[in-house]
Amino acid sequence: MFSICVHKNWQRKRIFVAFLLLGGLVHFLNRKDYAYVPDTLIYCVNFAIYAGLILYWIQSVRDRLTRSPFRCYALAAGGMMLLYLLIRTLKYRIAVTAAEIRTFWYLFYVPMIMMPSLFLMTCVRFHAGRDSKPRELVLLIPAALLAGAVLTNDLHFLVFIPQIDLAALRGDVGTYTYGALYWLVYVWIGLCFALGVFFLLWKAHGFSEWQRGLWPILFLAAIPALTALNDALSARGLQRIWQVPEIHIFSMLGVFEACIRSRLMPRNENYPAFFGSMEIPAMITDASGV
After folding, report:
1. CB 200 within 8 Å of CB 213
2. Residue range 139-168, pLDDT digits in tens
3. H-type alpha helices, 236-280
4. 190-200 pLDDT tens trace
5. Using an 8 Å Cβ cutoff, are 171 and 101 in contact?
């Protein structure tokens, strides 16, 4: 019975990775020299693949995690991933006027800010213990203030400073410069990641297998690594495999999944493992062997 369960979970893991790679391939094929393939069809297929993967993961989190702040933070992060994907679609496929495009450009920063904040809240909760008061909720205040500052940029220009008439601002390179709050946003994102890693390593260091605390860090490192790969492809005139939103989304999904698989979040032990018991880091790993 156990071998059948492991086999099924290994199949789920391979299917998940295969669809993630398929999404990248579909995007890569969406080039001018493949103009005979309807661009809208390719985009819809791409969106369906990514949205399906995120929804599948969210449902698995609901089943695998016990009722706790950890599950709330993971589900909230999953919601931010879906929001990120939806904003990307609306910006590039629905928005027409400069005002609409600018609005969705600003909205990108909501999940960009909230996902690292939820990661830090998870790490603080892990370090403080499950039964302590949820003091980490205070971290939502600076995150919400920064997100609100970006969304209201047209009123103060403290994040993006237009170099052209505001009515024509769409977010194109060279049409704006950065204000003080723009740098503060990225300081906050970097601080969330740095403090989260610190809390993970501090707490995990006391475990007999403290290396488990390293798996979330590997997925965080995937963000700059994949971004650099995309930049290298663009510099050589090649189509990017994944866009920035997909890199952020699935790297953060990997971070939360690694926290679950490493038992940094309280799991429902009666539920079969999402990606099977693996001893090596493939897409998501579980060194616990269950």
Report:
1. yes
2. 999 999 999 999 999 999 999 999 999 999
3. 244-261
4. 999 989 888 87
5. yes
